[in-house]
């Protein structure tokens, strides 16, 4: 009996072995001892969005391998674009500043006659005087910025558009003016300021001290109009704004001021292959510590790595050219047809917020949901300046923004059509409100026969309705009798708009006041 059982067992084992060999020959894995779940298996042929993928028992064939690596390189190129926009945007501002001759930190650009539509500048406003300078902490070391008293909101951002310090009214000087000290990322001294800065004595003098994560930093200040004029703000900047290395504080270089009004310049990153070259410039110049390892790994996966030339071969250049086209298109979808839950300010409305989620760091649910990457792209693809002051609820101080790209029917705003926008009475703005329109291609002010494609309730003499509301008109020609309230558009071009409230009041935050929608008029 024992001998018979052993023979039977051998026969069964041989039979199972033969079955498994046969199964293997058919390209199937059945398992010798246990059933293998189908969900972990890869069929010999898989249909996907990038075509048919072929395998020999889970191993991709040569054609499939080539297809998969091409796809992986495109995916990473797209992600490098979406994640790299903040860095290349600051780089664009730096390059644009060089166009105007601002090649040192003591050379500041001032929009003495306000910012008009000549410069290509992401959603710049026509309502405040800008004072701008690029800091080079690698060249200059710790750098002092003296801000005049009464300055409007000002900010320093690092080379990835991260917040470094506020100045002026929302800053540590609280509008009284003062000396700010910006430390470089490789600073090794005793000062250890928190995010946003701290007050400290340095060589016997009081400074508001912040530390940046990058060498290149952008300083941007805003000055308010007085009686509709720029004179006071311009004079304040020219007299009181100073930027110099701390090492030269006893004999600082003389400030030079460049008028940035009525002057064409480009401050916008490329949307073609050159984008990656701009990104490589930033990665090469800045310390690796400016980015986290995952971001550095993403950039390195497409050939952008500190200390190495960016020299993609013909295949890679073709794929990255495709990737930047997809990344650019994706950014435009996020901006003009957003699907984010928190973007809309009101139900059934075109008005949305650029700071989706109410976080200047774009953290979802206080960080529990990580960083909202799409929200960050939506912002930086169309805007500049990152500060908590643009997000926080500050009744009667700071500013708030809303943007719209569609009319009441959900159609894109068309330069060939005429529209009416009603601003209800008692707009909740202690200082003023404004509406500026932009070119969707450049995200800069729309270039028309009007130098300022905007209306401002303090600067412009707007006609009011009997109930105190204001109707603004948009179109190629002004409606008869409505010229004072008309903003010109261009047939054949689209446009979109930003509504700004300076000194926003409670009805804005509790949404008991809301702007009208864009209504097509004949």
Counting copies of identical and different chains, the oligomeric state is single chain
Radius of gyration: 29 Å
Count the helices. How many? 9
The total strand number stands at 23
Major sheet strand order:
8-7-12-5-4-14
- Largest sheet properties: 6 strands, mixed
In helices, the fraction of residues equals: 25-40%
Structural class: alpha+beta
> Low-confidence spans: pLDDT under 50, at least 5 residues?
1-27
Q: Would you write up a description of this structure?
A:
With 522 residues, the chain is α+β, with helices and mostly antiparallel strands. 25% of the residues lie in helices and 23% in strands. It contains 9 helices and 23 strands. The strands form 5 sheets. The chain has a 6-stranded mixed sheet. Strand 7 (154-157) and strand 8 (163-167) form a beta hairpin. Helix 2 (62-99) crosses helix 5 and helix 2 crosses helix 8 (373-380). The longest helix is centred in the first third of the chain and has 38 residues, at 62-99. Residues 1-27 have low confidence and may be disordered.
Question: Any descriptors?
Answer:
single chain, 522 residues, alpha+beta, 23% strand, disordered N terminus, DUF1254 domain-containing protein, DUF1254_sf
